[in-house]
Amino acid sequence: MSISIAIVEDEKNYNNALKKIIDYQSDMKVVAQFFDGNEALKNLSDISPDVVMMDIQLQDMLGIDIIEKLKKEMPKTQFIMCTSFEDDEKIFNSLKAGATGYLIKGESMDKILSSIRDVYNGGAPMSFSIARKVLGHFERKLPETNGLDELTDREKEVLNLLSEGLLYKEIGDKIFISIDTVKKHVGNIYRKLQVNNKVEAINKLNHFKN
């Protein structure tokens, strides 16, 4: 059984090139071509193809808006964004709208064909540069509190004294430990907070106090 595909792309040459290469495959077939967003919006839900190759920046509307409007009517259809845009906002708006793949137009036809098969079989294909951006986004979103939570009571005490401007010797004198022990605590603090110096450590402390 072949994979049914609709192409929504206002660049006619690219749209036709996609159709030609897809139809040449034994396991897939283009069942509809749309050259503007309005036509796609009106007709896609009646066709309900397995996969839609969706351009983001159509002349009359954003492909993202089409997905948002049709996704509920077409729960079994997978949408692959196929675009020249790599900016973060468009990537994440596409994924939030319900796209399951995101390809840059410069990708080889082999990559596009394998992505169609991949998304049909439950995958989420992305161009390498897009995947890197997505990973980077989620790394930035990881909760930052973990580092402070990992500090021992003594390490928190040392960090607070550092933030008050005390030197290592003054900290040692105040809490009755040697300067070498202070340095050891400070090293642990930097490692757990993933910082490289005193200023970064204090900034992180102040960030979570506020």
TrEMBL record:
Residues 4-120 form the Response regulatory domain. Residues 144-209 form the HTH luxR-type domain. GO terms for molecular function: DNA binding. Keywords: DNA-binding, Phosphoprotein. The modification 4-aspartylphosphate is found at D55. InterPro entries: CheY-like_superfamily, NreC/VraR/RcsB-like_REC, Sig_transdc_resp-reg_C-effctor, Sig_transdc_resp-reg_receiver, Tscrpt_reg_LuxR_C, WalR-like. This is DNA-binding NarL/FixJ family response regulator.
